[in-house]
Amino acid sequence: MAELGPEEGRALCEALEGPAPTSVRLHPQRPCRWSGAEAVPWSPAGRYLTERPSFTLDPAFHAGAYYVQEASSQFLAHVLAGEEVAGKRILDLCAAPGGKTTLYASLAGSDGLVVANEVNRQRAAVLADNVRKWGLGNVAVTVNEPAQIAVLEGWFDIVAVDAPCSGEGMFRKIPEARDEWSENNVKICAVRQAEILREAWKTLRPGGLLIYSTCTFNRLENEGSLEGLLAEAGEEIVESTAFDCPPAWGVVCGRVGPFRTFRFYPHRTRGEGFFAAVARKVSDGGSRVRVPKSRRTIFAPAGRRECAELSRWVAEPERMRFAAVADVYYAYYESQYEAVKMLAESLRVIASGVAMGQIFKERLKPDHALAMFCGLDRGAVPVAELSEEEALRFLRKQEAEAAAFAEGMNLVTHGGAALGFAKRIQNRVNNMYPNSLRIFNL
């Protein structure tokens, strides 16, 4: 606050007491009614909404047509705009609930791989749900400490650390963050951030890009964390490729050695408090890639008959490889398969690729993840297009009219976007939407 001065300090305090703007980020492959809304200037897929709707009662939200993401944090799309992200390996080290993970997945494409790690198991489950809903099939969700991830030495092209912090930038959006804040908590966070950055740096290949971000204002957790990494690895850190940050955006740009820094204040930008920094690991011409030895066998390649059944469910079977984990079959893009296999055999992976389902008597009982997969072959089963009222009944797992469904398995859609599967057996409809995702009490 002292750095801003009294006048700007008052403006910041007033902004923190005002209403928070609502913004979303559109899915790259799905239609959305907000595609024509006001754009977030630093995020091509970002949109501001004039009011905050009930997202829970919007079938498009459950179909993954958009992600409700705070505008300032979407700045990372601009950070990566000048990078060759498609086909790269990206580590999102502190990934839950998944806003930045789905952003990276959208940029990485089907030949890229995002490893989204979250140390907290409950938060990791939410992360996995959001990744599944986004439906790109290019993410592996892991639950490991940063030191465990660090065994993948020099393996990633891009490493992003959205570090746990004191949350000063969320005082407007999450009022409870004010009650939880203390100077001691700031110090505790700074120590933890230094540990995370130290381990994250090991995983970055020479020439790779490091992105560090927090949702707090103070220098100890932001510039201080960068200075700590520079003290340990300064000779390996160089500037990243320059990119524009127009003054009209209101972003406060700065530097910490080779790091370019970007600070968002709610009184200057239409978004919450946010800090981001970017730099590159020096390219020394060496690879120095080290990966752990396999500790166990996880994947069992699908047999010929199973592959034939699984192939008819995906639009590009020639690009996929199928494997069983226990009794569930998964699909992986060919370019990712060996990498994900290595991860599953050495780390704790709770979700990866596309869970296709179980096979009984040579027929697939599809998993919900397959319905959400953008690479699903829509000709595999009949499509049941529902009205908004019918879609909400489906999402609540309420009784459905059998006449809206064909006999057998159906892909349930609303506005052309998939919501899940349902199976009609004569006059009865079995709703296959996961109980853990159903809408309650609304």
UniProtKB/TrEMBL annotation:
**Which family is annotated?**
Belongs to the class I-like SAM-binding methyltransferase superfamily. RsmB/NOP family.
CDD domains from the entry?
AdoMet_MTases (cd02440)
Signal peptide (UniProt feature, chain positions): none
| InterPro entries for the chain | Methyltr_RsmF_N, MeTrfase_RsmB-F_NOP2_cat, MeTrfase_RsmB-F_NOP2_dom, Nol1_Nop2_Fmu_2, RCMT, SAM-dependent_MTases_sf
User: What protein is this chain from?
Assistant: NOL1/NOP2/sun family protein
User: MF terms per GO, please?
Assistant: RNA binding; RNA methyltransferase activity
Which UniProt keywords are present, listed alphabetically? Answer: Cytoplasm, Methyltransferase, RNA-binding, S-adenosyl-L-methionine, Transferase
Q: Spell out the catalytic residues.
A: 215
| Lineage: superkingdom | Bacteria
BP-aspect Gene Ontology terms: RNA methylation
Segments forming a coiled coil: none
